[in-house]
Amino acid sequence: MRRLGYGAMQLAGPGVFGPPKDRAAALAVLREAVASGVNHIDSADFYGPHVTNQIIREALHPYADDLLIITKLGPRRGADGSWIPAFSRAELTQAVHDNLRNLGLDVLDVVNLRSMLDIHHPAEGSVEAPLAVLVELQRQGLVRHIGLSNVTAMQVEHARRMCEIVCVQNHYNLAHRADDVLIDELTRQGIAYVPFFPPGGFTPLQSSVLSDVATRLGVTPMQVALAWLLHRSPNLLLIPGTSSVTHLRENLAAGQLTLSPQTLAELDTIAIELNRSASDIKTT
Prior knowledge:
Helix content is 43%, strand content 15%. The protein has ten helices and nine strands. The strands form two sheets. The chain has a seven-stranded parallel β-sheet, covered by helices on one side. The protein has a two-stranded antiparallel sheet with strand order 4-5. Helix 1 (23-35) packs across helix 2, helix 3 packs across helix 4 (128-139) and helix 7 packs across helix 8 (221-232).
């Protein structure tokens, strides 16, 4: 699998809810991604809901043999666009069948179980019951591989006692490095780590260091942020999202960017400075 994939979340409407403003542009981005060599797409049927998967099917079905589509279970969307935990057996089973129908598949390649113990951050607590349902659906032949999202290291450890975990998808980037230890452990275990929000999420990362490095290299800050992740560890797979073909091409070009040891050390100071600033705020 190529390390730079594509995240389809931005193909839905504002707030990842409803249809996109420009469906033709969404279709074009997906087709450009695959034509450019992307062979894994990250999606979820609760994007829209249903919208993103239906666009993927319209753009790319029948799928290329080497194209891997990864989806997620755990939330559902309220009529107002709210994010609601959906961990019951009935909800998870329905979610698998919704993904299959809207993607036009007989089996899902990879399904990530997204913890909703805290909607925004990993939080300790058992994910055993919903994971057991997913394992059962895997035994039924509806799911090939299982991953986890928005989870703690302890939850990963417990999950691996129940089934093989092929990937972990958490919030991680230049500034948000809470999973450094987990990434190193997953590398030793041969498990992929898929960071989301590489440029900072809905609030873009603001860093003079990042901007200075980008200017010096003649690239964008986002390209530097993606390249840093590719240098961080060999088990990192990236899924930057966009609804723009131009932005997609910029993201994919980051895979050709080489960062020197000196530049990597310079970028590592971003997290150090932010942590120091956070500590100063707490003590005042």
